[in-house]
Amino acid sequence: MRESAGRTVGRAWDWALWIGMLAIVTTLLFLLRDSLGSSLGAAHIVLAYLVLVLGASARAGRTVGMTLSVLAFGSFNFFFVRPYHTLAVAAPLDWLVLGAFLATSLIAAQLLARAQREADDARQRAAEVDRLALVGAEALNAGRADEALRAIVDVIRSSLDVARCVVHVRDATGQMTLGAESGAVAVAHDAETAPARARAPGLPDAAHLLAWVAEHGRPAAVRPDGALRFADPGAPVEQAASLFDVSGAKALMLPLRVHDRVVGVLELRHDDLMTLDTPRRRLLGALSHYAALGVERMQLASEAEHADALREADRLKDALLMSVSHDLRTPLTTIKALAQSIGRDGDERAITIEEEADRLNHFVADLLDLSRLAGGALQLKPEVNAAEDLLGVALERIQGAAGTRTINVSLDTQEPLLLGRFDFSHTLRVLVNLMENALKYSPANTAIDVSARRGGEHGAYLEITVADRGAGVADVDRDRIFEPFYRPEGTPPDTGSAGLGLSIARRLSEAQGGTVYYEPREGGGSRFVMRLPGVSMHELNAP
Question: What's the whole-model pTM score?
Fold first, then answer.
């Protein structure tokens, strides 16, 4: 308000000054009227008035200059064109002189005002470029993302001449947190001073304004009496800062967007009414984009730090697993040897001790293999092997666990020999693990189906499937069952599994250029598919 009053007083002084100058020039020319010749005198009068009009246009603007042109035209006609002291014109040539003077003065005032406006625009654009360059320099010089955002906020506050500038960051859950702030405002917060007032449906009060702006992506302004103003919902989001008029407001909330996503809110506050003219609003639009990029950089830096922490935790976990696995091998061997010794003395409890030691030893072996796979230390020797041989050995291994259960085996009859390139012992372990899982998680009166076929273009892969008629796997668990130590909800506690078998199976297959995946079986049940690199007979016989 003080700035507005100051501009009004300044304009009044301009009018008074230049009208007074016109009166002084007219008086001086009037005193010299009789000493000047008619034609030469008219030229001097016209030049004097033109200089006065140009000076007024240059110093006070087009409106003062053009008004002074009309007043000078009237003074010229009234005091210096015969008959004097009337607006009548006796000689036709005087009309030409008066018309030429009026047209020249008006055109000169207009052209000078346009040149000044273009010069002002050029200076404003240069200032905007300097501010943007300063923002970029501050952001690049800052080593940390939060320091860069704080530097951007400082530049925005100083560029827009506001009392306080704050950037609020919106997290993935929609909650608002303080990102950076600059300056302080002396007045109380709007939520504390604003009186209760009726609001249209869907519009927030001052206390929830930040969250509403972030959620809806619409700028909002706060008036001194606590009334809220909102941008037109149909306004282009990329021009929201430059189009939204904040005249008569003391606070502005502007959503910060990156890739059509609101990442935060820019809050501007002033002790008095904010005065953001068109150039400043245009600058605000550019600076708010830098602020949005600063928020995104800070979020990305936070995510990167979190990812580094997770990787470090995963590395420590693998190291711990490997250390524990090695350290448990020796005591387990001792326990099993002692159990065998006790068993020879006739104590039946030694059998239970030995079985549990074998179970724990199997678990330790899985831990050790998992840590080796994660560290890339497990040695694999892929060679050309036949699927029939792999299935035959797997059936022998699983015979004890299968008991009286039926295991149906089928091979692709269109292929004379199903070949693949894989490490036989480790692949056998994967297949036995899948078959044991099928026996463990399916009803006792159902059969297990194992099949092998060639798939892909030109037999690119060998595919072995283990299918059962169990309860299947829920959709939310289809990928997680291959994570270490994960056991789906509802898994019986007496299954004897630690949740490592499927994880090891997939990693062993992937280490050989294949994979293991799950798919539901038609009619109910599960299908676990092991896919390995295939080898054709033509490739085998090639020299």
Answer: 0.45
